[in-house]
Amino acid sequence: MSGGVDSSVSAALLKEQGYSVVGAMMRFWPDDKRVDTFDSCCSPDAAYEARRVADQVGVPFYLLDYREQFQQHIVGPFLKEYAAGRTPNPCVNCNTKVKFDELVKKAKLLGCDYVATGHYVKRVDGPSGTEFHRGDDPRKDQTYFLWGTPVSALPYILFPVGTLEKPQVRELAEQHGLLTAQKPESQNICFVPGTVKDFVAEHIPRAAGFIREIGSGEIVGEHMGTQFYTLGQKKGLGLYHTHAVRHVVHLDPGSKTVWVGDYADCLWTGLRASAANYLLPLSEVPDVVEVQVRYRATPVRARVLHKDDSGFELAFEQPQFAVAPGQSAVLYSGSRLLGGGLIEDHVRTLPALPAPKGRELELR
């Protein structure tokens, strides 16, 4: 229970269906937490509201300490990825490493049969076992974040609101008199106060470098750290020639270089993914899949060029703009979630960097 309306309604529905329900919230915030450190879904206030909802529903409530695991699996890797010039998705890691791995194990130890969440995902008992499918509300579908769920955990997870749309969930919360019925949704990364840029600036040292043209290697600007840029970005680049329209094409923290080019330089014809996880036997992954390369992106058809237990390679039917290394490539067949992996960078030949001289020696 997160203290939000979706998990609140999930608890109420399961209680109505005759389950013996135990409410639980995973504590992520540290003892020395700043007031603005954690968003409303992962804060002491949210824990208080979740406990009150549990009282309304008539179920016991427990606050479970996962501070160490959260720092190890979520916050640490988040900063490490930005420092490496990649764009991480901490919500995927949280579901993969914490909620649907360690929490499921904890539930089993406590004698629980299932872990239920408020995700907008449908569980389907297919001919070969448990399957995850897109939720019925296309605006809220959250399967993108669940591709890393361990296969062994699939039978032990329930999604009570997966067949509902958000307005229906709020209506049910009103009918049950739940205090979270009109609570606003959390939109931010839960542990990031303010903007990601400010959070990254606070934790990763600045390392000034140059912005260069991907085709020629020419210096066209300066920057204070590759961690402040994302692939496809065209605003706020600080180029010498401000009228030039350029997009970030590649980030290289090793040489402290931000590479830019035109729109065509940002088009990917395919991708390679590592750290793969499949929710079905590898042999059953079809030769043509739909792949979603970022949350809210429209899935596109792709041909599977290679697949093994560690990763896969795809060729898009249509080139895709600014596919970001570190984000997830999530595989589908229709509504069914097949699995996914972490996007790796392009294999590209970069212009040779000339020996520093003149303006380059002045940069600090």
TrEMBL record:
GO molecular function: ATP binding; tRNA binding; tRNA-uridine 2-sulfurtransferase activity
Keyword tRNA-binding: yes
One annotated GO biological process: tRNA wobble position uridine thiolation
Cell location: Cytoplasm
Binding of ATP, residues: M26, G118
Enzyme class (EC, first level): transferase
Chief site of localization: cytoplasm
Positions annotated as active site in the UniProt record: C94 (nucleophile), C190 (cysteine persulfide intermediate)
EC number: 2.8.1.13
Alphabetized Gene3D superfamilies for the sequence: Adenine nucleotide alpha hydrolases-like domains, HUPs, Translation factors
Function of the protein: Catalyzes the 2-thiolation of uridine at the wobble position (U34) of tRNA, leading to the formation of s(2)U34.
Name of this chain's protein: tRNA-specific 2-thiouridylase MnmA
